[in-house]
C-alpha cells in the first residue's frame, strides 16, 4: 500500500514552501472557533455580571421599600422594635377574600409580618391607613399562643 504524499512545492530561488489549501482551511477554522469561544465567554461573563448587579439593586430597593413602609406604619401604630418584619404585597385580593384578615384588602396593600411578636399588619399605602391587625396562628417554630379577639 502506497502512502499519498502531501504536495509541496519547494522553490530553490528563495521563495517559501507552498502550504496546501487543506491546511490553510484547517488553520482558519481553528482561528474562527477560538475567536467564537472568546466572544461567547466574554458575553457570558458580561451578562452574569449584569444579572448579579440587577439582583443587588433589587435587594436594595426591597430594603428601601421596607424601611419606608415601616416608617409610615410606625406613625399610625406602635410596632415591635426587636425584629425586622417580612414584607408582602397583596397582588390578587380575590384569592384572599375567604380569609377574614384580607376581607378589606386591595391590590397593592402591604402586609408586615412580625413572626416573633406574633402580629400581622395589613396597610394600605394609597390611603395611608392600617386596614387590619391580626395575631399570627402558631406554627411548629412559633409556640406562642395567639391572642383571641
Which helices and strands occur, and which strands form pairs?
Layout: H1 21-74, E1 86-89, E2 110-114, E3 119-124, E4 129-135
Antiparallel strand pairs: 1-2, 2-3, 3-4
Structural notes for this entry:
With 149 residues, this protein is an alpha+beta fold. It has one domain (31-135). The chain is 36% helix and 15% strand. It contains 1 helix and 4 strands; from the N terminus they run H-E-E-E-E. It has one helix at residues 21-74; strands at 86-89, 110-114, 119-124, 129-135. Strands 1-2-3-4 form a 4-stranded antiparallel beta sheet, covered by helices on one side. A hairpin with a 4-residue loop joins strand 2 and strand 3 (119-124). The N and C termini lie far apart (100 Å).
Summary, kept brief:
This protein is an alpha+beta fold and 149 residues long.
Count of the domains: 1
What Rg do the Cα atoms give? 34 Å
Give the proportion of residues in helices: 25-40%
Give the percentage of residues in beta strands: 5-15%
Low-confidence stretches: 142-149
Distance between the termini: 100 Å
Strands of the largest sheet, in order across it?
Answer: 1-2-3-4
- The outline comes out as rod-shaped
What summary fits the major beta sheet? Answer: 4 strands, antiparallel
How many extended strands?
A: 4
Annotation field: number of helices: 1
The helix/strand order is HEEEE
Provide mean pLDDT, rounded.
Answer: 82
Quaternary structure state of the chains depicted: single chain
Structural class: alpha+beta
